[in-house]
Amino acid sequence: MGGIDELADDRALLGRTSTAERVADILRTRIAEGFFPPGTRLSEDSIGGALGVSRNTLREAFRLLTHERLLVHELNRGVFVRVLAVEDVADLYRTRRLVECAVVRGLGEPPFPLEGLVEAVREGEKAAGATDWKGVSTANIHFHRELVALAGSARTDELMRGVLAELRLAFHTVHDPRGLHEPYLVRNREILDALRAGDLATAERLLARYLDDSRARIVEVYARAVEEPGQPKG
After folding, report:
1. Strand order in the sheet with 41-42
2. What pLDDT band is residue 8 in, cutting at 50, 70 and 90?
3. Do both 43 and 117 map to the same domain?
4. Is 72 exposed, middle or buried (0-12, 13-18, 19+ CB in 10 A)?
5. In the chain, at which end, N or C, are there fewer CB atoms within 10 A of the end residue's CB?
């Protein structure tokens, strides 16, 4: 598996008490970053050796990530990073719209703690200036996680973490990340500005339109990507 030596750098994150949850955290992050693209078979020997963990610990981590719908186990073939179906992508956006719009609608009275959103917008604009479109994608995910975090609900945060991690599986299959992510930089700032002004109705309207447009665009682009010759099928 190409680049597996890089995974060994994550061994320090495990500390003295290597657990399946910590291994799952590392693998989840690596999957989100595209280190293990959709359709990749995960080698127990290579990954276990790189992280210095037992086969049983790694299998438990795989089980956790399978439960999160990031991995799939295929009988007699092994464990693979999941390839989403087009219907999965559309459903993830429906979930996002329900959750994110409800968070904005229920924020209460301003001012709101918007520091995380401000940082995410700056992060995205900086990445775009460096033509780092993968970084723009990461900043965009950061923005929406920070938006949901305004609800102050650990359960909602956990739900959105899983939704966004799963959605990134689709992003890694698309061949034009700039065209996919660049238009939303301005729209994130518009949502932030509405929240700064305490205008929840405008913020929710902008967010709903954003998510509807993003769903239509990504479903169209992703459908083409998975239908091209040589692309894995969901």
Report:
1. 41-42, 78-81, 71-74
2. confident
3. no
4. middle
5. N
Whether residues 183 and 127 share a domain: the answer is yes
Q: Are 100 and 159 in contact (CB under 8 A)?
A: no
Whether residue 113 sits in one domain with residue 211: yes
Range of the domain at 190: 86-227
Q: Do 117 and 214 fall into the same domain?
A: yes
CA-to-CA distance for 40 and 8, rounded, in angstroms? 18
pTM for the model: 0.82
Exposed / middle / buried, residue 79 (Cβ in 10 Å: 0-12, 13-18, 19+): buried
**What total of structural domains would you count in the chain?**
2
